[in-house]
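Researcher: Let's try something more involved. This one mixes different molecule types, so please make sure each is placed in the same coordinate frame as the others.
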Amino acid sequence: MKNLRGFPSTVILWVLAAAYIFPTAWFVLSSFKPGFELFSLPLTLFPEDWTVSGYATAWDRFDFQKYFLNTTIVAVVTTVLTVFVSAMTGYAFAKYKAWWLKVFFICILATTMLPTEVIMPSSFIVVRDLGMYDTLAGIIVPSIITATGIFMFRQYFSTVPDELMEAARIDGVGEFGLFLRIMLPLAKPIAVVLAIFSFQWRWNDYIWPLLILRDPDRYTLQVALRSIVGADNIDWSVLLSASVISLIPMVVLFAIFQRQIMSADISSGLKD
Amino acid sequence: MSAPSTRMAPEPVPLAPTRIAARRRAHPSRTYAPLAFISVAVVLFALFFVWPGALGLIYSFSDYRGVGDVNFIGVENYTELFADEEFYQSLGRTFIYTALSVPAHYVVALGIAMLLASSLAKGKTSARVIFFLPWLISPIVAGVIWRWLFGESFGVVNFLIRELGGEGLRWQTDATLALILILIVGTWGSTAFNMLLFIAAIRNVPKSYLEAAEIDGANAWVRFRRIQLPLLAPTSFMVILLTTIGSMKEFAMIQALNAGGPGTQNRLIVQYIYQTGFERADIGYASAASMVLMVILIVIAVIQMRFQDSRRDLS
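Model: All components are placed in one shared frame. Result:
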């Protein structure tokens, strides 16, 4: 009886799932087709001749090591800084009271309504005048503060009982020691979730790298990919393989942290 | 010179404030510690939000081109902007896109989350991973994937339509179809994140409410409409607000999908700002457009917050 009742939901769910996976599946399978087969009719889902020649060409023609290295530097450095700055700021919001903390909290809230894309001409001038044009620092530094990260930590630290802090203070632990040695280790689960999110944001970032980087040697993956798509005659064979290669790190990250990502209660941070 | 002394003078007079001050002085670190904790964020906020905001406002009254001096030209940029048909076209297209994408993103993400949270459907764990995959894919690659799928002469979608005896649709050269495609890709890409928000919220709806309603004879639709949906209101508000802002600033995915084409017909507002500011190097004019967009976003945020507040008052 129960099986029958669940039947329509199961069918709807899997029809939708098939629709969601099809574009990616078609794309990945196409990347294993040889160049001539990509456009030869009738199109087939599976390659008739499996080949990695597209990958070989893409890897040769495209300085992947460099783009991977640049993107990894940006994503890792920004993530470490984002987690640390968000933890400090969120902790101050959760555990101290002062009028200027409230004012700054509202300022941070406002940044969610006004993303930097909106004021990119002047943001670009600011980064340039700080001497960070065409450097990886020019992408890293402006991306460090995120309201989401700060709210996630604030929410978490406000659930930590004040008695714990008082006990530590009585034992003579200073305010900074309290944060570094007691609070920060407690917040490890939040730090992991934010680190994953931050890594994804920065790995897939496009608009800042596009504005800030001029020298192709410093391109991140997304900007480099866009330069293939932007060409008058798109070389699909290279583009397909290059795009698939660019996805690998995120897929690996997801495979490792799937549990943390899927159960992440990001809403707690966003809702406040 | 006398200012500091007059400010110091009244301090020792009343008794109570002194005692409070003394108590606070016993823990000076508790005042300074939070200041130190937020200092980095304050500096970054000032550098990358306040400064560009103020600078943008200043530039919007100038003909600054990125180099040389800033010459002020009054409100000329704004008068030119309000007479610029291309600006209205971009802004109008952005509004149409946002008006369509907010309900689409909302309904699809909520529907999938309900299916995944229901106890009836089979294979939910794998299905959830499938729905989540687009989150891993960057907007640029998402654009490329769908461009490959919807190519007019080589895409598999038109191939299938032709196989079924139809005629290939003009996904790239027809402005309306191109916008529909943008809408589909946007929805596909954003489902993962919104779905996670909804799943977490649906799980927080107390089971006892639903069971009680079931005993009272409420069918699934009534239970959804009368119990779950109202309890999901805060999450719904969040998703709608974030989707609105996200749609207003859509850029990267469209760049890879069709670059705002055909022509400039699907050029949304951020792309317009990008092109005037960086391709035409007209920072002053682009800043004026930025300021208009900023005002629009503030108005949208305030309206949505008001709406949220009034709903909370009612319930």
